[in-house]
Amino acid sequence: MLRFLIFAAAAWLALLSAPAAAQQSLPTDRHAPLYLLKYWRSHGPGSTLGTSTSETAPGIYPAAPAMFVHGVYGGKLPAPQADLLRRRLDVVFKALMSQPSLADIHGASLDVAINISRAQTEEEGVLPVTANLTFRAKRILKDDAKTIEKNGRFATPWLEGSVLEVSLNPYDFIAHRNVVVAGPPQGRLQALNAGTTMALLVSDTPAPAEFDRQALARELAHDSSWLGGAGKRPILMRVSGARHENLDVWRERTAPTDPLARLIAAAYMTDWDAVQRQVAAVR
Fold first, then answer.
1. In what order do the strands lie in the sheet with 197-202?
2. Helix (H) or strand (E) holding 3
3. Distance of CA 169 to the CA centre of its chain
4. SS (H, E, C) 152-165
């Protein structure tokens, strides 16, 4: 009887865990280093593989992104429009900060900022509004004289760090980088590369079968959809460190709790199809 009860309990637990495991998989898994996803899908916030005081130190992170509205190329965006973009990017901020690799981060700190401006294009007078949410993950050096401590958490601000950036209208990235496809489109998602930089693009409509960077750049130059105008409400996520750091991740030479690895895990464990819909729902 005892053996039967143990078997029944084990079967019940397996049944309960099966849907959760299925939900963890995303269409973009094939474009990410799988060892990072495997680690962070089985470890919670605050996890670290490090053993030194720097690698185990809790890192400083913001409760909300810093906000900068720039006035180049046609002047500053009116405050109500800038606030709409801020609130939309706040949805992205919360989605990324909920990922275990960034929540209660250890061994690294996070700087996060929103930058809103207008992009200069090849067409006279065409200045699309762009809004970028940028995460910069910097490793902690506890013994460095410039390392700071705040409420028991640490940061070494002078380091450059690795970058995860999310753009509402990614005109600059598409127009000025050598962007190529990293695989076939998956519904509304298109995986992209620019050198060793990894990226994902999602918009209101299914990704075209053939990717044309120049045609997309021309389209984005006239896209005002995130402010209620015409367009497809495009979001692009890109993540990158130095070139050798990017390559080391793909060669599985980088610990899953390294700053760049944390950003990549957060980026590819986020359901961008769902996030794009949530951002579009903000009014």
1. 66-69, 108-118, 129-139, 162-168, 235-240, 197-202, 189-194, 179-181
2. helix 2-24
3. 15
4. CEEECCCCCCEEEE
Closest CA to 105 of 54, 60, 160, 142: 60
Q: How many CB atoms lie within 10 A of CB 193?
A: 17
- Structure letter (DSSP) for residue 90: H
| Residues 88/156, Cβ–Cβ less than 8 Å | no
Q: What angle do CA 45, 48, 49 make, to 5 degrees?
A: 150
Residue 84: its H or E element: helix 79-97
pLDDT in tens, 150-205: 999 999 999 999 999 999 999 999 999 999 999 999 999 999 999 999 999 999 99
DSSP string, 170-201: -HHHHHHS-EEESS--BTTEEEEEETTEEEEE
